[in-house]
Amino acid sequence: MSLPNTDTKSINSDTAFSLRSRVNGYYELTKPRLSFMSVITAIIGYLSADPQRDFGTLASLLIGTSLAAGGAAVLNQWLEREADAQMVRTKDRPIPSGQIAPYNALMFGMGLSIFGTYLLYAGANPLAGLITAATVASYVLLYTPLKKLTTWNTLIGAIPGALPPLIGWAAAEGKISTLGWILFAILFLWQMPHFFAIAWTYRKDYKQGGFIMLSNTDADGTIVARQAFVFAVALVLSTLLPTLLGYASWGYGSIAIIAGCYILRPAWTFLKAEIRDTAARRLFIASIFYLPALLIPLVLDLWLI
């Protein structure tokens, strides 16, 4: 009786593990949680425009935005692979860890970005495709290199981060209406306290990676905290515009006020130097819960009134 070939089984097992590892590596390159947020805000923009019930357009929006956002994330990591290798928070990412070769990541990122943009151009309309292309280009070619050049990178980077609602709006209407620009403003302003909180929490890591962040040039965090608070106030005011301009009811407006108080509290606490580190983490967490608590009621209000 022959014994089983354990060497063959071992090789097959190693091959299967290697394949799963590589697939997982490519998946992680797309920054799925960040990309998911882009998809959700694009859907918010689409639904806020009260679109025609066209499944093909919606499918193109979902798939195209997912691919383009993932592609932009891959290209961002390809460009920042050397810096990522220097930071504790990012050194285990697929490229610096050696899991995915840089060339393969570049081709993967370009493929996702191009195909995602084409899906929105052909499956929705040219304006949606154009805004998608602008989102990818500004994130990869503008925001990413500016992180090594100027502290203004956070403000500039908030532009591509706020464009997904306009992609959704354009997919629905073929143009951008006033409420669409209000959604852009809300997403733009929201990112500032959100990312200032992140930048302060990981300031040592960013410095190690060679990034020029405001949190690295502001020794005690006073300027970072003040700007986070000012933008938080501007954010809360912008969320009232749909109601004040007659697009939404005071039912949504009341929720916007309550949500505003919720995010202003940690933003105010962030101003206190003695608890700034703790306050930064609380502001970051509050900002995550704040956005869906605000945008979901807005969409429901727009559809119900």
The portion of residues assigned to helices is over 70%
| Global mean pLDDT | 90
What name goes with the CATH superfamily of the largest domain? Answer: UbiA prenyltransferase
Q: Architecture of the largest domain in CATH?
A: Orthogonal Bundle
Radius of gyration: 21 Å
Structure description:
This is Protoheme IX farnesyltransferase. With 305 residues, the protein is mainly α. The protein has 2 domains: 18-176, Tetracycline Repressor, domain 2; 177-305, Four Helix Bundle (Hemerythrin (Met), subunit A) (Up-down Bundle). It has 15 helices and no strands. The chain has helices at residues 6-29, 32-48, 55-79, 81-86, 102-123, 126-146, 153-162, 164-173, 178-201, 203-208, 214-217, 222-239, 241-244, 250-269, 276-304. The chain is flat, with a radius of gyration of 21 Å. 45% of the residues are buried. The model is unreliable at 9-14 (pLDDT under 50).
Question: Could you give a quick summary of the protein structure above?
Answer:
The chain has 15 helices and no strands.
List the helices and strands and how they pair.
Layout (H helix, E strand, L loop, with lengths): L5 H24 L2 H17 L6 H25 L1 H6 L15 H22 L2 H21 L6 H10 L1 H10 L4 H24 L1 H6 L5 H4 L4 H18 L1 H4 L5 H20 L6 H29 L1
Helix pairs in contact: 2-3, 2-8, 3-5, 3-6, 3-8, 5-6, 6-7, 6-8, 7-9, 8-9, 9-12, 9-15, 12-14, 14-15
Q: Which tags fit this structure?
A:
305 residues; mainly alpha; Tetracycline Repressor, domain 2; Four Helix Bundle (Hemerythrin (Met), subunit A); 15 helices; Protoheme IX farnesyltransferase; transmembrane; UbiA_sf
